[in-house]
């Protein structure tokens, strides 16, 4: 299936969606970087977690598909190495002791190619430490968005495939088929507070939901986004805060 393009706004990401890398900090503990390890941060965004890993393992580098995010990462952390690269086809001469990835792999619809490529770029015995959206991630938001698009006669947009949100069984089975030994796998519910109390869901849709609005009239985009926020309020507005209904998967696996 063809990957839907998504344009990232690095400024909006850092201003209103810093939770993406803030939550990822605990994943570094699971990675437990060692000083002598060569580590890849796959989908590094603007580089915050790459930098934290670099404090423990200096031979770290980051790649991301977004040129804008890589430009921001290079500006933020000029002493580190960052490259534009795709999860399904990156390649480095020297293989890695570990590949770390936070909040990225659900964007890769061709997930099997990504798994094959991660395997190819790891040393034997090297490990994956991953977190990404799991089964039913943001289902309340996206079901409501698809319904609103249909009501406005944007049927094609309502069927847009933006993400891959697997169950543990689905994902770990593919890892094992491709030669990994899975040692840890967890699915968990993680309601995530959004920054703006007035426009939390609207901001989230503008940041992450862009592919759904390809070919939608600008006035209709505004109307649909407003409608979605209103329609999810009963479920996702609690104690004066907006929450995104995140479900996450964490996996640790070793190349055999």
Question: What are the main properties of this structure?
Answer:
alpha/beta, Rossmann fold, eight-stranded mixed β-sheet, globular, 8 strands, 256 residues
Strand content: 25-35%
Structural class: alpha/beta
Let me know the CATH homologous superfamily.
Answer: Vaccinia Virus protein VP39
Task: Indicate the low-confidence ranges by residue numbers.
Answer: none
State the CATH architecture: 3-Layer(aba) Sandwich
Quote the CATH topology. Rossmann fold
| Cα-atom radius of gyration | 18 Å
Q: How many structural domains can be distinguished in the coordinates?
A: 1
* Main β sheet profile: 8 strands, mixed
**Mind telling me the CATH class?**
Alpha Beta
Mean pLDDT across the residues is 92
Number-wise, the strands total 8
Overall shape: globular
- Element-by-element helix/strand order: HHEHEHEEHEHHHEHHEE
How large is the count of helical segments?
A: 10
What's the multimeric state? single chain
